[in-house]
Specification:
Strand order of the largest sheet: 1-2-3-5-6
Helix content: 25-40%
Number of strands: 7
Largest sheet: 5 strands, mixed
Radius of gyration: 15 Å
Distance between the termini: 42 Å
Number of helices: 4
Structural class: alpha+beta
């Protein structure tokens, strides 16, 4: 039996697609638990409509947060592709952009798990109506924390 190092590209490649998102969320939640030690930061995991089998309505994102004067939603995406995000994977973008119009500071946090890179962008930086987005204009970072810090909200 071959033992793979957790979070290595080989380990990610060995996971079934339905497990990749959950593992990415575990990484993000570990970061949030560290950040939660700061008085100026709070977060909450919103219910997952898919996991609840329809008993809960679709939520605007995976998490809600407050960081100093900033507050909003964070949607986390795990992508095998090195820079492209398919629109079909971000169906809540119109809802997030509506919240942004009302003053919410919403973040899309993308984990390119095969390269170990993370990118972040405001929900308003993606144009509705595209079939996919080329994320190369958003700087890659080596960790979720660095990607979130780059937004200026954290």
């Amino acid at each position: 039996m071959i033992t793979l190092k957790k979070y290595s590209p080989e380990w990610w490649a060995s996971l079934p697609p339905e497990d990749v998102g959950g593992e990415t969320e575990k990484v993000v939640e570990a970061l949030f638990k560290q950040m939660n030690q700061r008085q100026s930061f709070a977060w909450h995991r919103l219910p997952d409509a898919k996991a609840s089998r329809g008993r809960v309505n679709a939520q605007p994102a995976d998490y809600t947060y407050r960081s100093g004067k900033y507050a909003g939603f964070i949607e986390v995406k795990a992508l095998k592709h090195l820079f492209r995000l398919p629109a079909a994977r971000l169906t809540q973008l119109p809802t997030l952009q509506k919240w942004a119009l009302a003053g919410s500071d919403d973040v899309i946090l993308v984990h390119h798990y095969m390269s170990g890179q993370w990118r972040s962008m405001a929900a308003t930086e993606l144009k509705i109506g595209e079939t996919s987005w080329d994320l190369t204009e958003f700087a890659p970072h080596g960790s979720a924390g660095a990607a979130l810090a780059a937004t200026g909200y954290f």
